[in-house]
From TrEMBL:
This is Uncharacterized protein. Keywords: Signal. It comes from Schizopora paradoxa. Residues 1-25 form the signal peptide.
Amino acid sequence: MPQVIFKSTSLLVLYLLIAAPCSTPESDIEAVAKIMHDALLDDVFFNFLIAGHKELFYEMQLAIVKAGLMGGQVYLAEDASGAVIGGTVWFGPGHELLDSEEQHNAGFNRFMQPLTQGSTDLPWGPELWRNDEEINIRLAEK
């Protein structure tokens, strides 16, 4: 059950999803991934990371949410009617996205599979995801 961290009776309820993916309702995980997908689909940085393969963007967001449940914090916001209106993933000091094999196995490896099997249009390789400095260099080249 998500932990309520803020509640306004007329406007907003904000939840912190604190459990691992196996015990967090799949509907909550998917709701956060969908909100992030819709908000960031045309973002230049994210499109670089998926090499323009927008059909894989939801899978990437799902992998990020699942990784956040393991090594960070995932927040979900609902309006008074219970409709999901926001979500985000944060990694605190000492943790970052994909800093463990557990995070990779929770969804990232599945997301990366179609991007790395025989694809020739990638401007980077899978190792890029483990090196923030390399991402910045590649973006500067664009």
